[in-house]
């Protein structure tokens, strides 16, 4: 086992980097999309049940099934991975962003308006900071989930550590089958916990002291 | 208040004159005795209750009051063994409460807490029926008991028994809570801030109703409150506690108001004790005026004629259970033809209401008086403003002397370990103060 | 962690009960539309040998049945283990253990489910058993966490009222705590069902059957028709299971609470 790791150290590190990079980029994309949609939902209240239904249905569709639907459209490789991970990453953030932004007291928004803040200023300086802890919580859920979805995307030759798991599966019976699967699985667990710790730290640092739990 | 002091040993109902009453009214309550009871919570050095001894006479309402953290709630919860004393004994009707299984004991003690604490997933019927069912009553008996209790607390069984708690107002929930506490007809009823969660008007009404019920049932009621006005109004006697459940004074409301034992009690009761005396006087102590009454559906003109000949300015319309339904002027009565129930709320007080409450209601009414009802909201008569003012003048002319009975405990100033009062504990009448500090709340004992 | 639908609605830490009728009516309609469209295509399309073998009605029904059995067996096992453990962890004697246990289970969710399935199959052998255990491990947390949260959110004054009225500890649990916790526990069960029905697609990798086979065949044999058919049927099945969970949630919620 140890030998397996030391021999492939560079490859493992590279794949871990790929895995993380895929997840982080998808998360950034997902956050922007989710906040934009949530903002729209807070402006047009009629959209709220629609957004909630999309979140609920989207999260119900198995990732393997969605991957199957994507492949005929975009082929195999990195692109389906990015689309798949981004799709699932968006939903928890969207759900929390809607809850968070809607949760800001209308009184506060009105007093901000009364003080002469522009619509954009009100969003950026009042609404977003107050909703931020909730949005960050959604982001952490998304990050955990994305780590696993990225592993599944590897089945369609996506980048990252997931390929080690599938290599282990195809080499079953061979002497390296178990090390491949273990390194893939444990590697993803470590990456997920590290990313979660980092996000927790970011969440604390970017949340106003006044509303920190 | 000469009457009060000479009859201090009696429950105040005994002075009641509002209704013909039999002298041999049966007391269904049981005596509760605390003997040197101490409770120390694990991990704390100072006892929450420090050697408390007192006797709660059968059939009386005893109010436990005191500042937050004085141990009043702990003392109450030791009676049904939600908390176990560290030392000392508590007896109910002479029997040590530890001689019984604790669930068995609790099934025979009513328990009513703030807001009613109804189980939201059970209908009104199921909430009330809970203890009778635990006791294995048969279905028929349970069903009739539920209806009887709903009637008792003034809720129509047909209308309310199948409702769920969230379909009731706060006051209605609290009524059901009282009904639930009385379900198995326990001799003892424990109440923990029972009316703390409702608005002042509803609270006053609930208090009046509780007094009516108590007049009928004669339970031993132990009630914790932080509201000294509530204690004065409801209590046959009041236990004022200081930190560690040290007794500052235990006596009738009249004696406590007339002769506070020490500066702690004085501060707690407040300086306006002469105004508070208004809360000691009941509507039932005054003469009510007769009024011309009619039934819903009667002819208005005829009723108006009867009223004119009796020199009355209005007609009181009653429903089929003799409850006031409307109070109409003569002209209006003539105009409407057939008398109907009023859609507006009537200004009605229970005959157990205090003069305080009655004056309140009069100010809101447009008749210069207020309708008084007795048991189960039956109409008794009209209380007029002049009667009240005359009564007050008479009483203030009379001298007050405090004379305590065998149950009273009146420590002198220097007997108290610490009679100095902290700033915030003085105003006992403030509402909505924090709960009793109770570190073990919610833990299984 | 992997897959869809992490149950944590983040701040609350537990999946909240579903509300509203929209999805309750909408989901079956969506599913019926997709299935109807697919059936129409299946009856009219010209299929080659491989396709017609893979998409034979018998084959599809067999795979679907395997998929459903796997899902229900796993969920049932999770239910009878996680709920009692959750109850135990909220009893006074074990209450202090609930935080570390939930923390551990949370961290365990960081494991990619596909990795767990593969490793477990390597350890105890391919087949149904390995699939049930690995999927069960994965679905355990939401049910455990929701059971604990559901019981913890029961108003302590209600519990005290119940005890003060003379109910035994077991009575309080059965007649007050569990009925009040049911909506949240059921939300956890629905989450578990959805997790399992989705992850059961991977059971085919360890020869434990299920509809995942269609996707794998479709990809390896370059038959988009098979691939899309498999994906659609799995998606519809997941939506229907979610719907059934919602219906069940509504039925199980005591009347006074809904």
TrEMBL record, chain A:
Q: How does it sit in the membrane?
A: Multi-pass membrane protein
Q: Where in the cell is it found?
A: Cell membrane; Membrane
Q: Which Pfam families match?
A: BPD_transp_1
All residue ranges annotated as the ABC transmembrane type-1 domain in the record: 16-201
Kindly state one GO CC term assigned in the UniProt record: plasma membrane
- Please tell me where this protein is predominantly located: membrane
TM ranges are 20-41, 53-76, 82-109, 130-157, 177-202
Per the record, the similarity remark reads: Belongs to the binding-protein-dependent transport system permease family.
* Protein name listed in UniProt: Osmoprotectant transport system permease protein
Q: Which organism is it from?
A: Marihabitans asiaticum
From TrEMBL, chain B:
Q: Which residues does UniProt assign to the signal peptide?
A: none
Biased-composition ranges, Acidic residues, are 412-425
Top EC category: translocase
Q: Which PROSITE patterns match?
A: ABC_TRANSPORTER_1, ABC_TRANSPORTER_2
Which of UniProt's keywords are assigned here? ATP-binding, Nucleotide-binding, Transport
Q: Where is the composition biased (Basic and acidic residues)?
A: 9-24, 431-445
Task: Report the GO molecular function annotations.
Answer: ABC-type quaternary ammonium compound transporting activity; ATP binding; ATP hydrolysis activity
Check the record and name the InterPro entries matching this protein.
Answer: AAA+_ATPase (IPR003593), ABC_transporter-like_ATP-bd (IPR003439), ABC_transporter-like_CS (IPR017871), CBS_dom_sf (IPR046342), P-loop_NTPase (IPR027417)
**For the ABC transporter domain, which residue ranges apply?**
32-269
EC numbers for this chain:
7.6.2.9
Q: Which domain of life is it from?
A: Bacteria
Renumbered to this chain, region (Disordered) spans 1-27, 397-445
Which family, according to the similarity comment? Answer: Belongs to the ABC transporter superfamily.
Q: What is this protein called?
A: ABC-type quaternary amine transporter
Automatic annotation (TrEMBL), chain C:
Which UniProt key words apply to this protein?
Membrane, Transmembrane, Transmembrane helix, Transport
The answer, when asked if Membrane is one of the entry's keywords, is yes
Question: What biological process terms from GO does the record include?
Answer: glycine betaine transport; transmembrane transport
Segments spanning the bilayer are 21-41, 68-89, 101-120, 126-144, 192-219, 225-245
PANTHER family from the UniProt entry: GLYCINE BETAINE/L-PROLINE TRANSPORT SYSTEM PERMEASE PROTEIN PROW, OSMOPROTECTANT IMPORT PERMEASE PROTEIN OSMW
What is this protein's record name?
Osmoprotectant transport system permease protein
How does this chain sit within the bilayer?
Multi-pass membrane protein
Q: Which Gene3D superfamilies match?
A: MetI-like
Q: Can you say where in the cell this protein is located? A: Cell membrane; Membrane
List the Pfam families hit by this protein, alphabetically.
BPD_transp_1
Tell me which residues make up the ABC transmembrane type-1 domain.
64-245
Q: What SUPFAM superfamilies is this protein classified in? A: MetI-like (SSF161098)
Organism per entry = Marihabitans asiaticum
Q: Which InterPro entries match?
A: ABC_transp_perm/SBD (IPR051204), MetI-like (IPR000515), MetI-like_sf (IPR035906)
Taxonomy, superkingdom:
Bacteria
Example GO CC term: the record gives: plasma membrane
By sequence similarity, the record places it as follows: Belongs to the binding-protein-dependent transport system permease family.
């Amino acid at each position: 086992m140890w030998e397996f790791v030391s021999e492939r150290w560079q490859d493992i590190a590279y794949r871990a980097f790929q895995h993380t990079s895929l997840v982080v980029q998808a998360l950034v994309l997902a956050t922007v999309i989710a906040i934009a949609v949530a903002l729209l939902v807070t402006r047009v209240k009629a959209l709220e049940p629609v957004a909630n239904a999309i979140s609920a249905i989207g999260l119900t569709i198995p990732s393997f099934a969605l991957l199957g639907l994507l492949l005929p459209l975009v082929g195999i490789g990195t692109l389906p991975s990015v689309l798949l991970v981004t799709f699932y990453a968006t939903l928890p953030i969207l759900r929390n962003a809607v809850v968070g932004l809607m949760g800001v007291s209308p009184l506060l928004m009105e007093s901000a308006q009364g003080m002469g803040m522009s619509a954009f200023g009100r969003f950026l300086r009042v609404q977003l900071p107050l909703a931020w802890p909730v949005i960050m919580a959604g982001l952490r859920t998304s990050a955990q989930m994305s780590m696993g979805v990225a592993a599944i995307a590897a089945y369609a030759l996506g980048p990252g550590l997931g390929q080690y798991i599938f290599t282990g599966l195809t080499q079953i019976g061979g002497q390296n089958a178990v090390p491949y699967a273990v390194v893939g699985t444990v590697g993803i667990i470590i990456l997920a916990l590290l990313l979660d710790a980092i996000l927790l730290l970011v969440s604390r640092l970017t949340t106003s002291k006044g509303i920190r739990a | 208040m000469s009457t009060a002091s000479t009859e201090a040993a009696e429950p105040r109902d005994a002075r009641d004159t509002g209704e013909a009453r039999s002298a041999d009214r049966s007391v269904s309550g049981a005596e509760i005795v605390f003997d040197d009871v101490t409770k120390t919570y694990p991990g704390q050095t100072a006892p929450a209750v420090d050697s408390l001894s007192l006797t709660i006479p059968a059939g009386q309402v005893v109010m436990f009051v005191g500042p937050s953290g004085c141990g009043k709630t702990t003392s109450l919860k030791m009676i049904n063994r939600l908390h176990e004393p560290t030392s000392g004994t508590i007896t109910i009707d002479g029997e040590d409460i530890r001689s019984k299984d604790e669930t068995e004991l609790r099934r025979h003690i009513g328990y009513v807490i703030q807001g009613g604490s109804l189980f939201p997933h059970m209908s009104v019927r199921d909430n009330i029926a809970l203890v009778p069912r635990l006791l294995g009553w048969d279905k028929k008996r349970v069903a009739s008991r539920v209806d009887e209790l709903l009637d008792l607390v003034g809720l129509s069984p047909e209308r309310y028994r199948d409702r769920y708690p969230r379909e009731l107002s706060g006051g209605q929930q609290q009524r059901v809570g009282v009904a639930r506490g009385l379900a198995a007809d326990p001799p003892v009823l424990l109440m923990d801030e029972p009316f703390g969660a409702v608005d002042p008007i509803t609270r006053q009404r609930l208090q009046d109703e509780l007094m009516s019920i108590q007049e009928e049932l004669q339970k031993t009621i132990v009630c914790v409150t932080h509201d000294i006005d509530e204690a004065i109004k409801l209590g046959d006697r009041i236990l004022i506690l200081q930190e560690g459940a040290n007794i500052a004074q235990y006596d009738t409301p009249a004696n406590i108001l007339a002769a506070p034992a020490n500066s702690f009690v004085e501060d707690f009761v407040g300086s306006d004790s002469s105004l508070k005396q208004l809360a000691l006087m009941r509507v039932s102590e005054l003469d009510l005026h007769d009024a011309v009454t009619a039934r819903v559906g009667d002819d208005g003109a005829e009723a108006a004629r009867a009223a004119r000949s009796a020199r009355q300015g209005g007609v009181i319309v009653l429903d089929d259970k003799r409850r006031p339904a409307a109070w109409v002027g003569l002209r209006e009565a003539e105009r409407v033809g057939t008398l109907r129930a009023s859609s507006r709320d009537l200004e009605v007080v229970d005959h157990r209401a205090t003069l305080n409450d009655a004056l309140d209601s009069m100010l809101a009414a447009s008749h210069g008086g207020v309708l008084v009802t007795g048991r189960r909201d039956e109409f008794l008569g009209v209380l007029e403003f002049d009667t009240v003012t005359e009564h007050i003048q008479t009483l203030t002319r009379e001298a007050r002397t405090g004379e305590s009975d065998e149950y009273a405990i009146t420590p002198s100033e220097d007997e108290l370990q610490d009679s100095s009062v902290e700033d915030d504990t003085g105003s006992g009448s403030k509402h909505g103060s924090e709960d009793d500090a109770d570190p073990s709340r919610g833990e299984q004992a | 962690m992997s897959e869809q639908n992490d149950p944590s609605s983040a701040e609350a830490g537990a999946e909240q009960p579903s509300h509203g009728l929209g999805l309750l009516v909408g989901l079956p309609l969506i599913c019926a539309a997709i299935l109807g469209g697919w059936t129409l295509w299946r009856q009219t399309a010209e299929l080659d040998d491989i396709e017609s073998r893979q998409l034979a009605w018998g084959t599809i029904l067999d795979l679907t049945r395997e998929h459903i059995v796997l899902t229900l067996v796993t969920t049932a096992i999770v239910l009878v283990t996680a709920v009692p453990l959750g109850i135990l962890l909220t009893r006074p004697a074990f209450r202090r253990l609930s935080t570390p246990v939930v923390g551990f289970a949370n961290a365990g969710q960081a494991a990619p489910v596909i990795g767990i399935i593969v490793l477990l199959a390597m350890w105890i052998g391919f087949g149904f058993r390995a699939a049930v255990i690995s999927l069960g491990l994965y679905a355990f947390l939401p049910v455990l966490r929701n059971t604990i949260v559901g019981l913890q959110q029961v108003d302590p004054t209600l519990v005290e009222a119940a005890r003060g009225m003379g109910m035994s500890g077991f009575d309080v649990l059965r007649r007050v705590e569990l009925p009040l916790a049911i909506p949240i526990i059921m939300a956890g069960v629905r989450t578990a069902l959805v997790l399992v029905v989705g992850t059961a697609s991977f059971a085919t990798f360890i020869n434990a059957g299920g509809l995942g086979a269609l996707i794998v065949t479709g990809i390896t044999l370059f038959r988009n028709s098979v691939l899309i058919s498999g994906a659609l049927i799995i998606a519809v099945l997941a939506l229907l299971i979610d719907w059934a969970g919602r219906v069940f949630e509504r039925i199980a919620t005591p009347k006074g609470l809904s």
